[in-house]
Amino acid sequence: QEQLVESGGGLVQPGGSLRLSCAASRFIFSNYVMSWYRQAPGKERELVADIGTAGSTNYADSVKGRFTISRDNLKNTVHLQMSSLKPEDTAVYYCYARFLWGQGTQVTVSS
Questions:
Q1: What is the pLDDT of residues 7-61, one digit of tens each?
Q2: Residue 105 has pLDDT above 80, yes or no
Q3: Pairwise CA distance, residues 23 & 45, whole Å
Q4: DSSP code of 109?
């Protein structure tokens, strides 16, 4: 059964950094765009960033210049490096690919 497995969330102070990871099967990783979404309490789920199979990237305006999405082709893993975090980045972050969602990982930015 295909699945996406996320890791790396947690509590961080404003201005801090976190790295999220999403592990996928080789089939999914090699053939599909990999994306990160987030959902804050009371808000709709929104796209944060995605990366194509050839490495092209796309970011939400709210995270441009602060977040970086990348692919580790040896480990079939996508990373989301988050820097200069703000309280408004607090949300559950989800990995998505090929109609599959990860279980979600909580990111809380608070002093």
A1: 999 999 999 999 999 999 888 888 999 999 999 999 999 999 999 999 999 999 9
A2: yes
A3: 21
A4: E
In this structure, the number of other CB atoms found within 10 A of the CB of residue 111 comes to 8
Strands (E), the chain: 5-7, 10-12, 18-23, 34-39, 46-51, 57-59, 67-72, 77-82, 91-97, 100-101, 105-109
Pick from 18, 28, 16: nearest CA to 79: 18
Residue with tokens 């990871």: 21
Alpha-carbon distance of 34 to 73, in angstroms, equals 12
Whether residue 35 contacts residue 49, with contact meaning beta carbons closer than 8 Å, is answered with yes
